[in-house]
Amino acid sequence: MKQKVNPPVVITEDCIACQRCVAICPSFVLEMVEAKAAVVRGDWCIGCEHCGAVCPTAAILHEGAVLDGHPSKGEVPATSPENLELLLRERRSVRLYTSDPVPEEILNKILNAGRYAPTGSNSENVHYTAVTSPDQIAELRKKTITFYDKMFSRIRGRFGMLIVSLVAGRKIAEYLRESLPKMEYANELIRQGKDRLFHHAPVVILAHAESWDRSSSFNCSVALYNCSLMAHSLGLGCCFNGFLVNAANHSSKIKRWLGIPADHKCYAAMTLGFPDVKYLRLVHRYPARVGQPAPGEGAKQSNAN
Ligand SMILES: Cc1cc2nc3c(=O)[nH]c(=O)nc-3n(C[C@H](O)[C@H](O)[C@H](O)COP(=O)(O)O)c2cc1C
To answer: I need a surface site. Which of 3, 131, 195, 305 has the fewest CB within 10 A?
Structure first.
């Protein structure tokens, strides 16, 4: 749960009654009182700071807010659509890393990028576990592989397959069974010292949050994606890791070992390091599949371009 938010403070004499803060607030905190903006429902404030950000006279203060050092605000938006598209298409899942460790200040800069991701109700509820010690990464790898060994040995048998179908659903059970040959192959490579799980990355990061919150999954995923873009812009690479997310959530041993609280769930994980690969061409992807609601007929699918 987010710690209590301090509502904004309006410097009444600086307010020019433009009402922008009242219009922008998603939580009905501000209203015009005697032709000046005023905080009337401070308890409802989620601390998003939209009001202060739109105020032309800086008449709104966010007291108690954590003040970030930041580059001075320049042109808006900060990047062009062309540059952004390039950035999005350049970012690839990096599975080849150099053996260079990631300096702490770079890791912090990357994790810092997650703080600016949106969170439902501005809960800012994302927590990170960063594993940076080679011994600990090796231990985590071992634990994760043991977890999958057990799971795959179950789905080899009919009875185990039935249990997995009942617990996780038929589609997942079938997916796992189809993945068996690939998993066995990857396992063999791992036995030969080729880390096909964490790709010999010097850092493994997990994002976790309270599981009661329906936004936690999105919050963690988007935060880590922000981190991955920052990593890319700093010349590092990342690869999301669904295997680890699944293992951390289904093995209480792994979850405890990672220091993830019992009431949290892990929603995203990734490896991080300096890439030992250069992508010479941009990625191609299918056109966006966009549906339109057509009452009575079901949604019609069309492509965006
Ligand atoms: C939720 C999620 C889980 C993923 N899990 C893994 C994983 O466990 N191992 C891996 O090598 N790649 C993993 N990936 C990377 C995808 O395979 C990759 O994003 C996809 O192939 C597209 O490649 P690109 O990211 O380079 O564009 C994952 C990606 C996502 C979004």
So the answer is: 305
List the chain domain ranges: 9-61, 87-134+197-273, 135-191
Q: Is 92 in the pocket of ligand 1 (CB under 6 A)?
A: yes
Domain made up of 9-61: CATH architecture? 2-Layer Sandwich (3.30)
Q: Would you state the pLDDT for residue 296? A: 78
pLDDT at 137 over 60: yes
How far does residue 255's CA lie from ligand 1's centre (Å)?
Answer: 21
Return the ligand 1 atom nearest residue 196 CA: 11
C-alpha distances out from residue 97 to 49, 188, 230, 275, Å: 39, 20, 17, 4
Q: Which residues of 63-92 are buried (b: 16+ CB within 10 A; e: fewer)?
A: eeeeeeeeeeeeeeeeeeeeeeeeeeeebe
CA of 12 to the centre of ligand 1 (A): 51
| pLDDT above 70 for 85 | yes
Mutate to test the pocket of ligand 1, among 241, 244, 245, 284 (most ligand atoms within 8 A of CB): 241
Q: Is the peptide bond before 275 cis (omega within 30 degrees of 0)?
A: no
pTM for the model stands at: 0.91
- Judged by DSSP in three states, 128 sits in strand
Same topology, domains 9-61 and 87-134+197-273? Answer is: no
Ligand 1 centre to CA of 148 (Å) is 18
Q: Specify the ligand 1 atom closest to the Cα of 199.
A: 11
Question: How far is residue 8's CA from residue 298's CA, in Å, rounded to a whole number?
Answer: 45
Q: Which fold has domain 87-134+197-273?
A: NADH Oxidase (3.40.109)
